[in-house]
Amino acid sequence: MFASLIVGALVLPSLFPLSMAAPADTLWKRALPSLLTMVPKASTCAGAPFPAECKTADEAAPFINQSFRTYGITSSGEAAAIISIMAFESGDFQYNINHFPGTAGQGTRNMQYPEYNLKYAQSIPELKDKLAAAGTDPKAVLALLTANGTYDFGSASWFLKTQCSDTTRGGLKSGSLAGWQAYITQCVQTTVTPDRQAGWEKVAKALGVSGQ
């Protein structure tokens, strides 16, 4: 059963082993479970604490799919890491600016620090002129990224591709818990917590990631 990209569904190379990259002409063709099964709280933005920042799963899915294409994310293991970190850091897509404790310039869906947001913005040709006007002001740079869904939801894929080592990516492609833990501690440089791991396990299960 094959289908082109549909709203609310993630399209990933599930026909291939986790360690393999699918040929370009067959990639992004198979519709997998709805993003809502991985991020169940993203069914609605009703009652969201920051309504202007909130996106539902249906709204987020096309942007996430685009980020996978743009940054060459071709394994379910990597996709699970990306989706789960965005869900965890943004409260299931409810916000894209750091409100707790309110670090200026920290944001996008994976809550990147300002220095990474600047690097990310500098990597996007379409932002060249606007970035020149914004300078290095962290809030202004963040505003450029969060104003566009493609950039907002693309940051986690960009970060994995450009800031993580090949070894880290290989660990994610294996689908193993150890590989994901190394991504969190060595690349993201934060702590593995029970709730963070539970979020990853939920997404990994939905995507059929079953490495040991």
Verbal overview:
It is globular and about 45 Å long. By secondary structure, it is mainly alpha-helical. It has helices at residues 57-71, 76-89, 114-122, 128-134, 138-146, 149-152, 155-163, 166-174, 177-187, 194-206; strands at residues 9-11, 31-34. Helix 8 (166-174) packs antiparallel against helix 9. Strands 1-2 form a two-stranded antiparallel ribbon.
Secondary-structure content class: mainly alpha
The SSE string, one letter per element, is EEHHHHHHHHHH
Average residue pLDDT: 87
Unreliable stretches: 1-7, 12-32
Morphology: globular
What share of the residues lie within helices? 40-55%
Per DSSP E runs of 2 or more residues, the count of β-strands stands at: 2
Radius of gyration: 16 Å
Q: Major sheet: size, sense and barrel closure?
A: 2 strands, antiparallel
Number of helical elements:
10
The strands making up the biggest β-sheet line up spatially as 1-2
Distance between the termini: 28 Å
- Tell me the fraction of residues in β-strands, as a range: under 5%
